[in-house]
Amino acid sequence: MEIKKTNLLVAMFACLAACSDDATVDNTLLPDNSETTTVKFEMNANTGNYYSPLSRSVNPAAITKDNFRIMAFKKTPAGEGYFYAQDIPTAGMNYENNVLSGTVRLPIGEYKFVSTYGLAKDGGFTLPSLTPVTTELTDDLNISHGTVDGSSVFFLEKGTIEDLHSYTLGINPTANESVSASLSRAVSRVDIMFIQAKKNDDGTYTEVSDSADVFGVSQLADIEMQFTGLNRNVNLLGTKTTTDEGSLFNENFTVPDLGNTVTRGTSTDDTKIGTTGFLNYDNIKTDDIKAGSAHVHGAYLLPYDEAINTTNLTLVLTNGLGDKRTIVAPKNLPLERNKVTLVKIYVLSGTVFNTDVKFNVTIDTAWLEANSVDGEIN
Length: 378
Fold this sequence. Notes:
The protein is built from one helix and 24 strands. Strands 1, 2, 3, 4, 5, 6, 7, 10, 11 and 12 form a ten-stranded antiparallel β-sheet that branches. Strands 13, 14, 18, 19, 22, 23 and 24 form a seven-stranded mixed β-sheet that branches. The radius of gyration is 24 Å and the shape is elongated. The two termini are about 30 Å apart. It is an all-beta fold.
């Protein structure tokens, strides 16, 4: 299934101003007699249907200039690589109508620019420390999983470090090449659907509303997602760079704020989530779900390369009486960039916490295309 990609367009155009003492230049990086040029940055921050998961039922997430980061890597005079020069300052830029714009000054030379959005200091993902002149732009620069959470989303360019376009900035601003980049989500997300249904003889399902709430009258008090085999690192363009077992990790994620992260259905129609043509995975509403069923907004995780899946998931649910229910999903969840992996749990009788309940679990990835894995859990 398809979803319109969220894109951030970064376009840098030359400007005719000139000033040798501009505060945006780190003068410690300038050799003797170095000259500078001015560059105008324009970043289109129209993110479409990008919502904050913990407030998605209220308002879209605010896009702020503080969450943009553009890193400049300058080629050495000997041409032996690109090394970190400085961050492009955004504090003095203007932000209006989803466009971040402003003019800064850089030393003339050949550059590669790495643009990101959403890598906040206190988020679940962290950028490496960059040292001017010393840190080289390579695949060894990793964005790392700090913690697993349900709110950290970041955007990167796509491609390889080798193919990242280089730009020569000369003393004449009018001759400088325009610089542009397109950013998309660089994370995967794992959501859970609890669907009341009966299984037909041909293996298909018919949704029902036998109970007013799939979790029963005692309600859902806690849900823990226990992950094993998670990917820890991606490079600055979102490509997985580590495949050895030492780079994998396990973590338990308790879904926060169940009043917002769990959406209970109110519709008399069948559930739309996970069907062909459903697009709005960032703003799921009660009328997207058949009455009695529910959707859980889960964790953001780093994806894998294509055809590589090592992540397993166990769910531990607790109701208001303290009763627990453990559900083991089929092995090797697909985690792909800019996709939601939707774990569908079909409750074939009663409610989730009935002792005789049977489950049928399917796994679909949404946003760009779909995969599925079937299996019943007793």
